[in-house]
Amino acid sequence: MFPILSRKVKGKDLVYFDNAATAQKPQQVIDALTSYYTGYNANIHRGLHTLADEATAAFEATRQAVCAFIGAAYPEEIIFTKGTTESINLVAQSWGSAFLKEGDEIIISSLEHHANIVPWQMIAETKGAKLRVIPIDDNGVLDMQAYKNMLNSKTKMVAVVHVSNALGVINPVEEIIHLAHAQGAHVLIDGAQSSVHLDIDVQSLDCEFFVFSGHKVYGPTGTGILYGKKSLLEAMPPYQGGGEMIKEVTFEKTTYNELPFKFEAGTPNIADFIALKSAIDFIKDTGKDSIRAHENMLLGYATEKLRAFKDVRIIGDVFEKVSVISFVVEGVHPQDLAILLDNQGIAVRTGHHCAQPLMQRLCIVGTTRISFAAYNTIQEIDAFMEALKKSLNMLR
Ligand code: C6P
């Protein structure tokens, strides 16, 4: 079902534990890409021919599928982007340029990926707004009292990660949103790591924006989602200008297209978005609940095994987490460990995980991170533990 998983790496069976970076693709996603290019490759929304109609219908079917996947009210609230990074930049630039003013405050957290830090720093600098950061404890748990104290009438945006990519810790986003709304602030949830593991219902969350990447939910790279509440998206100016996002253009003035097209300038990533629907179908057909139960079983098993290593320290060792384990080994650089594991066919991620401020807060250079998906197995964890033992013996 996942063809890549049968390949060998360095002569060994591949064990792919870097799912938080990107998930592998099921055959049906690969097939969807091939059928588009072999059967109905055409530009969308503008042609009056059969291929264009078929491509447009398939592309818009993905919007409907994403809408249902995250419980949005209207398909036009789903904006297609390149990824989580572009979705956040779109909100920071478009919403920020229209609604932020000098002295306003934006709250993020110490757990953020650079994609949910830098775009806010950029717009804060342009607008003279202030960036404030919710602190965490040594396990990566947010200090909610500090957050409450931070909120005030100047808070205009709270942008927080749902699940930390570096640690796997799940944030209490319902409470974060509720508290922000009580102060009249908007909320953006970075769902890059949550959308594949947790049930998402943006209407019950009631966040203004929710963003994630297709490639982390078994879909193609270059596909990103921005969910935004319709009234807010309507009030925001376009992010980029060009074809597709216009209603009428004269040299004097341009009027803009309706949602979602106002935010989708130019020819989009048609093939990959069409294939994204097959990825969502894969999750739906397998069942998010059964995927989560399987991943939790792997998480529990691997955590227990890792705890038996005396020099291994799990970072973010908390109950509310997804199937991501980050750890440090005393006296061992994560990069050296990654190379030795790769020699044994095992793919892990090491380093700062694009969360340098988090690493600084935890006083570590980085971690070794293993992350599990629907297709991983107990046998793979056993192979990993053996390889880890062997590697640590070599490094000492
Ligand atoms: N995290 C990881 O290995 P893009 O690159 O736009 O698809 O996603 C960016 C991003 C934003 N927020 C969070 C919480 C993320 O985890 C990521 C991507 C990958 O952890 C690559 S650094």
Alpha-beta content class: alpha/beta
Name the bound molecules: ligand C6P
Radius of gyration: 22 Å
Instruction: Give the termini distance in whole angstroms.
Output: 39 Å
* Main pleated sheet: 7 strands, mixed
Shape estimate = globular
Q: How many helices?
A: 13
Strand order of the largest sheet: 4-10-9-8-7-5-6
Give an overview of the whole structure.
The chain is of the alpha/beta class and 396 residues long. The protein has 2 domains: 3-17 and 287-395, Aspartate Aminotransferase, domain 1; 28-284, Aspartate Aminotransferase, domain 2 (3-Layer(aba) Sandwich). Helices cover 40% and strands 17% of the residues. It is built from 13 helices and 17 strands. It has helices spanning 27-40, 50-69, 84-99, 118-127, 144-150, 173-182, 202-205, 230-235, 270-286, 288-307, 334-342, 356-362, 378-395; strands at 8-9, 12-13, 15-16, 78-81, 105-109, 130-134, 155-161, 186-190, 209-213, 224-228, 246-249, 254-256, 312-315, 324-329, 346-347, 349-351, 367-371. The strands form 5 sheets. Strands 4-10-9-8-7-5-6 form a 7-stranded mixed beta sheet, sandwiched between helices. A 4-stranded antiparallel beta sheet has the order 13-14-17-16, with helices on one face. Helix 3 (84-99) runs parallel beside helix 4 (118-127) and helix 10 (288-307) packs parallel to helix 13. The longest helix has 20 residues, at 50-69. The protein starts with 7 loop residues before the first strand and ends with a helix. The mean pLDDT is 97.
